[in-house]
Design brief:
Elements (H helix, E strand, L loop, with lengths): L2 E5 L4 H12 L3 E5 L8 H9 L7 E4 L6 H10 L5 E4 L6 H6 L1 H21 L4 E7 L23 H20 L2 E7 L2 E2 L8 H10 L3 E5 L5 E2 L2 E2 H10 L6 E6 L5 E2 H12 L4 E5 L14 H7 L7 H14 L1 H4 L6
Parallel strand pairs: 1-2, 1-4, 2-3, 4-5, 5-6, 6-11, 7-10, 8-13
Antiparallel strand pairs: 9-12
């Protein structure tokens, strides 16, 4: 079995990746600074699902602090790969506080790449984002399309992180898989993402804020599918950028109607203009994921939304109070 460092271990995607690897018998050194970029109760809940595994080691550290991370790498020997899922995420919040995104997403990635080089760790996975694609790109989005016009500081920070990964691959032959994730959702998801917000707002009879006309579409992808794809990326690929998406965009109004059915309540929709950092539609070309990794999404939108609603109702006693900015 292998030993992997997973950063952002209490995060939405990273906790699911860690859970699957732990069940497979691998040792996971989970790193997370447990910041309050969103309600820490969600991070605590996810972390609680992992700490019972004897092969899970949790370290509360910040990847942007090089000396602290150097100490982690020095004490945790025989590391077979780094899965860097720690990030400041979210398009709109990055417009308000771009500095935090640069520190974690760029400097943090640079620190981990340099430590891979110094400690002779051969495998690196980076979580990137579909937000790199813009309105000028043809749909479905292909990995080799132009991504030089990021619409938000978040997207710009991930573009820089991708470039750093290629530099370290070129200089030191580091094997790198870069994943561009498309609108990930599921139980215990991020509260700034639309599907967590819609679920809470409909269930708690709160106004449902919709930016735009509600018919903009997203390539919603269930978290378990994303986690499986991420783990598949541990294979040797030299350097690859790979979309992980559902390749079946759905309008926001379709999602809202499904949630209404599952919750047995009607949404009180309030419309606002689209945010200038948003695009009208996203859709992934997933040919690379199929051909290189043998991956494809397996969870339908209907099934995934039902799992999200079931989780929310089970955890409603505290999840109803999660701030949804």
């Amino acid at each position: 079995m292998s030993r992997y460092i997973v950063t952002g271990a209490a995060g939405f995607i990273a906790s699911k990746v860690s859970e699957i690897l732990l069940k497979q018998g691998h040792t996971i050194i989970g790193i997370d600074n447990m910041n309050d970029s969103y309600d820490v109760r969600l991070k605590d809940w996810r972390l609680a699902q992992l700490v019972s595994y004897p092969n899970f080691i949790f370290l509360q550290e910040d990847i942007s602090q090089f000396s602290r991370m150097d100490n982690v790498f020095n004490t945790q020997r025989q590391i077979d790969g780094i899965i860097n899922l720690a990030a400041r995420a979210g398009v709109r919040m990055s417009v308000e506080n771009p500095w935090a995104y640069m520190e974690t997403n760029i400097n943090g990635t640079l620190n981990l790449l340099e430590l891979c080089h110094r400690y002779d760790i051969q495998k690196f996975i980076l979580a990137s984002t579909s937000s790199l694609y813009g309105s000028h790109n043809p749909v479905p989005y292909n990995e080799d399309t132009d991504t030089n016009r990021p619409l938000s500081p978040y997207a710009a920070s991930k573009k820089a992180a991708e470039a750093l990964c290629y530099s370290y691959h070129h200089l030191y032959q580091l094997d790198v898989t870069v994943f561009r994730y498309f609108t990930v959702y599921g139980p215990a998801g991020r509260p700034d993402m639309s599907l967590f917000r819609f679920t809470q707002w409909i269930c708690e009879d709160l106004p449902v804020q919709v930016y735009g006309d509600g018919y903009q579409s997203r390539d919603f992808t269930f978290v378990d599918d994303i986690a499986r794809g991420t783990i598949a990326g541990l294979k040797n690929v030299k350097y690859q950028v790979i979309n992980l998406g559902n390749d079946q965009p759905h309008p926001l109004m379709e999602v809202i109607h499904l949630l209404e059915d599952y919750l047995g309540k009607k949404a009180n929709i309030v419309y606002s203009p689209m945010h200038r950092a948003d695009v009208y539609t996203t859709r992934a070309s997933i040919d690379n994921a199929r051909n290189i990794l043998g991956w494809k999404p397996e969870v339908s939108l209907e099934e995934g939304l039902k799992k999200l609603v079931d989780w929310y109702l089970k955890e409603r006693s505290w999840a109803r109070y999660i701030a949804t900015p």
